[in-house]
Amino acid sequence: MKAVKDLGNNIFLIDCHDLQRKERTGSYVLRDEQNITLIESSASPSVPYILDGLRELHISPEQVSYLIVTHIHLDHAGGAGLLLKECPNAKIIVHSNGARHLEDPTRLIAGARAVYKDDFNRLFDPIIPIEHSRIIIKKDREALFLSPTRTLTFYDTPGHANHHFSILDNVSNGIFTGDTAGVYYQELKQNDIDLYLPSTSPNQFNPEAMVQSLNLYKELGVNSIFFGHFGMTSYPEEVYKQISHWIPLFLEATEEGVNLGGTFEDQSQAVYQLLMKKVQSHLEKMYVRIDHPVYEILQLDLHVCAMGLVDYYHKKQS
Fold first, then answer.
1. What is this structure's pTM?
2. What are the backbone dihedrals phi and psi of residue 79, each rounded to the nearest 5 degrees, phi first?
3. 16 and 27 in contact (C-beta within 8 Å)?
């Protein structure tokens, strides 16, 4: 079975099987005449899937020139050090706020352990530091010229994280949004449903910044969105509509859950239950049963979203 999808314009999507789930995270391959570029490494257990995908495309790891990570959360960049060991000629491109954490991932590891606890090693190990000489920083609106016909332009897009940029490809007029434009739930495609939910994981979620980043995408007039989780849509206006709809509902659930009191964990659990109730109600209207496979991943995502929302609430109050 093919592990790679051809998205057109010499852009290919490799399924990284993050969390051992199909269509959870992806690594994008831009196969250009002069440079091979990967966007996102996912976590280290995904690296074998990326290498398999490159083989399917008849690309050797030695041909890869660049690995770009939209941000440094481990499900997007945790495998970067391991992947670069396999791609000896590649350099990694990262936001200026994230570069130091690729060289020394100690704080990244500690933060992820706090969220994933006993599951950390299974999901993310190993996390390998990256040499300073292999790191390239791109600032807002800087470009990378891959060939005479293909240019990538980088845009600061906070909201999910302060170390997040998005990458506009001039050939497809598509933008690689990491987590800023939310999560695209592929499990619902079998029901002909496109569901996009905000990703509000700890600890830099900022709803105002997320809306501003969505507005930037609108201003750029992109034709398509390439998600970190997972795949591509050619209907960006529907993404903007849904994410803008859900952000205030997430904040409403946060205030209600925090006001119930208790510890951070108590409040996060209360917010999670309120979020799940809202999403479940939405899906019931489209005849999605409670035993649908999408709920497996929604449970994880909304638990993590709830922690980020409670963290945001308390920082705003302080």
1. 0.96
2. -90, 5
3. yes
